[in-house]
Amino acid sequence: xxxxxxxxxxxxxxxxxxxxxxxxxxxxxxxxxxxxxxxxxxxxxxxxxxxxxxxxxxxxxxxxxxxxxxxxxxxxxxxxxxxxxxxxxxxxxxxxxxxxxxxxxxxxxxxxxxxxxxxxxxxxxxxxxxxxxxxxxxxxxxxxxxxxxxxxxxxxxxxxxxxxxxxxxxxxxxxxxxxxxxxxxxxxxxxxxxxxxxxxxxxxxxxxxxxxxxxxxxxxxxxxxxxxxxxxxxxx
Length: 236
Fold this sequence. Notes:
Blueprint: E1 5-8, E2 12-17, H1 29-35, E3 39-44, H2 60-74, E4 80-85, H3 87-98, E5 103-109, H4 119-134, H5 137-146, H6 152-158, H7 166-169, E6 179-184, H8 188-197, E7 204-209, H9 216-219, H10 221-235
Parallel strand pairs: 2-3, 2-4, 4-5, 5-6, 6-7
Antiparallel strand pairs: 1-3
């Protein structure tokens, strides 16, 4: 499917892939302004989010990667810099593994390569938070107006403790482009994971950002953007 996208700026295309339950319009806002003077910034709504209306999540990550291919073809873009956070980082990883020739660089945050020992407990806590969200009428109204499709399907998908694609995140096999892993120091699994990726690929760079955790691009937007900018300048 062709993804609904926000687009600003001119130059080399850089695609920002948003986190779960966000959209191209609501996520990476600081980065959009930071990079718009030097890049063609593209911010798509992933399938089932925002105005990219689709309720089939049965093969979400594979389909989301293919959606991005279709969207780039529609825009007549051959290759991109990819930047993804959390859910968007997983989509970016799937895309880079399957279409490496289309990736100039890959920047990921908010992912874990291996299943943590306390995964079961972490998952139970996530489900509890999601249950509270569904009981919050104000939050439900907010997400109802944000997404044209049924956003609750993502919470139902995540209730399965096997939803996370560890088979894909365990390595960086097949990716040919320079890679930047950014992690917030407040998330030990992600910081350890980012460092472990360093041994998997000769072109991996790692940055651990202080005073941040899972959504480091939101928690420390200036530092995150400056690190990303430094990475992009050094690989060009």
